[in-house]
Structures are given as structure tokens and as C-alpha cells.
Specification:
about 15% strand; binds adenosine monophosphate; three-stranded antiparallel β-sheet; 8 helices
């Protein structure tokens, strides 16, 4: 009996491109599964597994975890979830070209029932800088509603500096100040552009969607890519 094909979506896009929010919508509205390699690393550490012991130091010092260990964790997680038959979204993976290469090799040799689908959330850096540096979040940890102080934005709060839902003050995340955003974008391009180039060279189709539009439209664009599979 041939094994059922499982689609694994790689969402590529800079911070502020909306890919995280679209991923949440795919989980909530379509029942997809989301694999965050950051969460997976933290789970291994919390459970004290062999892998957890090996990656503890890298995580605590903010370095990237060894590529082969990440692939082992991802492969194990996929095996545990493959019977769900649900589409999977990768969050934070692959982070390096080596991870992208190793994962394709794994699909070719072992996980032959996986169909890799790459979506690139395209948006100009200038738009991201404007988006993130105008972003404000509710300081109430239970609320965390997101606003924009950009002029003309539909997400402006009704009362300046206050959350519409709970009235708490709005704050700017430390990493949303424009100099930090520029640095985050630089780091993103350093790795992500190489990973996308690698996919192109390997003949993996890159489905580009315009991320400079409202989230529900970007979500619909992802659904359209899914329907093409
Ligand atoms: P995140 O939650 O995605 O910000 O990841 C938190 C930490 O987990 C990162 O700083 C890395 O140490 C590690 N990590 C998560 N995903 C990867 C990955 N794909 N490759 C290497 N390290 C990762």
C-alpha cells in the first residue's frame, strides 16, 4: 500500500511580513499543524532528553543549534505526527542552507511521502521597517492586542496609547525600534536569501505571495497555493 502524501509548507519571509499570523490562521481555520523548531528545542531541554542535554548550551547562549541535531528532531517529530494526515507548517526551519540540503536528502531517501511546498512572503524592507516601527502592543500580558500608529492605518487605537479592549497602555517592543528592525532584516536576508537560492537551484518551486496586503488576503493566497497541490 502506498503511503499517504504529507504536505510540509516552508514559510519564508522577513519579520513583520505577517507569516506568523497567517500560520496561526492556517492552524485555527484549516486545522494544519505548526512545527516551531524553537519550541521543539525548548521541549527537549525541559524533558531532559539526550538531544536536550546537547542543545542546552547553544540555546542559552542564543547560538544556532547544530544542523544535524535539528534535522533529527524534525524527522522524529514528523514521524510522530504523520498519521494525523494534516498539512504541516515549518516555523523557523530551515534556518540554514545545510538544513535545507539535509532535509531534501531526508525526503529523497527516507521520507519519500513528503511533498515540500515553499512559500515566500514577499515584501519590501522599507515597508517592513515602517510596519514594525509603527507597531504597538498592549502591555497587558493576558491581552497583547496589536496596533499600528502609522497615519491612516485601520489598526490605530481609538484612544492614543491605550488598548481598545482592556485599556492598558500600549508599548513598543524593544526589537521593533527601527535600528533593531534593520539589523533583524540584515540577519534574515543573510540566511533566507541563500536558502531560497538553494531551493531554486534544486528545482524546488518557490510560490511567491505578495505580503504587502491585509492578512486575510495573504491567507487566501496561501490557501490558493494549497489548492494547487
Ligand atoms: P526561536 O524560538 O525560533 O526564536 O528559536 C529559539 C532558539 O532555538 C534559537 O536561538 C536557536 O538557538 C534554536 N533554534 C530554533 N530553530 C532552529 C533551527 N532551525 N536551527 C538552529 N537553531 C534553531
Amino acid at each position: 500500500m502506498s503511503e499517504q502524501q504529507l504536505e510540509c509548507f516552508v514559510f519564508s519571509g522577513p519579520p513583520g511580513s505577517g507569516k506568523g499570523t497567517v500560520a496561526q490562521q492556517c492552524v485555527q481555520n484549516l486545522g494544519w499543524l505548526q512545527l516551531s523548531t524553537g519550541d521543539l528545542c525548548r521541549k527537549h531541554i525541559a524533558e531532559g532528553t539526550e538531544i536536550g542535554k546537547q542543545i542546552d548550551f547553544a540555546i542559552k547562549s542564543g547560538k544556532l543549534v547544530d544542523d544535524a541535531l535539528i534535522i533529527d528532531m524534525v524527522a522524529q517529530w514528523i514521524q510522530e505526527h504523520k498519521n494525523s494526515g494534516k498539512t504541516i507548517i515549518f516555523d523557523g526551519f530551515p534556518r540554514t542552507v545545510v538544513q535545507a540540503q539535509l532535509f531534501i536528502q531526508l525526503i529523497e531517501k527516507k521520507l519519500t511521502w513528503i511533498k515540500l511546498v515553499v512559500i515566500d512572503f514577499k515584501i519590501d524592507d522599507a515597508v517592513v521597517i515602517q510596519r514594525l516601527s509603527s507597531r504597538r502592543i498592549c502591555s497587558n500580558k493576558q491581552c497583547q492586542a496589536v496596533y499600528s500608529v502609522a497615519s491612516g492605518s485601520q489598526k490605530r487605537p481609538m484612544i492614543e496609547g491605550k488598548c481598545d479592549f482592556c485599556g492598558a497602555s500600549l508599548i513598543q517592543r524593544l526589537d521593533d525600534v527601527s535600528a533593531t528592525v534593520e539589523k533583524r532584516l540584515q540577519v534574515y536576508h543573510q540566511h533566507a536569501d541563500l536558502v531560497l537560492d538553494f531551493y531554486k537551484q534544486s528545482g524546488v518551486k518557490i510560490n511567491s505571495i505578495n505580503a504587502d496586503q491585509p492578512i486575510d488576503i495573504a491567507f487566501k493566497a496561501v490557501v490558493a497555493v494549497k489548492e494547487l497541490q
